[in-house]
Amino acid sequence: KAAHNIGIATDTPHGLMVPNIKNVQNLSILDIANELDRLKTLSENNKLSTDDVTGGTFSLSNVGAVGGTYASPMLVVPEVCIGAFGKIQTRPAFNSEGEVYPANTMCVSWSGDHRVLDGATVARYSNTLKRYLENPNLLLFYLK
Predict the structure, then answer these.
(1) Catalytic residues, which ones?
(2) In the 3-class helix/strand/coil scheme, how is the chain assigned residue by residue?
């Protein structure tokens, strides 16, 4: 079975670093949180090892943390996909009766290696992620 090593783009005083959480498919939420904390501390102190920054398969970048609304994320081989999350903004939306209401929205941009993924797969994944972000209680069904 393939390893899922999730890269987390990290803005540090030393520049952008993308450490990755190894074999995330085998970790609990608490394990992931602990590993994120470890990698964040190492990143801030410019102490990441080669193993911490190599072998990523999928990366996430939060451009919204620095005020960005969208991006064109660039894939770095051997990764197969990267997603960039924009800043959450309140925008007008319409309910089923056509009435305007304020809605929180976020742009997400994806780049994928089409030798491994097709666009429809990435679009379905994006829709699933949207459903989880809008209904985080659904994630409880999948906790380890």
Answers:
(1) 114, 118
(2) CCCCCEEECEEECCEEECCEECCHHHCCHHHHHHHHHHHHHHHHCCCCCHHHHCCCCEEEEEHHHHCCCCCCCCCCCCCCEEEEECCCEEEEEECCCCCEEEEEECCEEEEECCCCCCHHHHHHHHHHHHHHHHCHHHHHHHCC
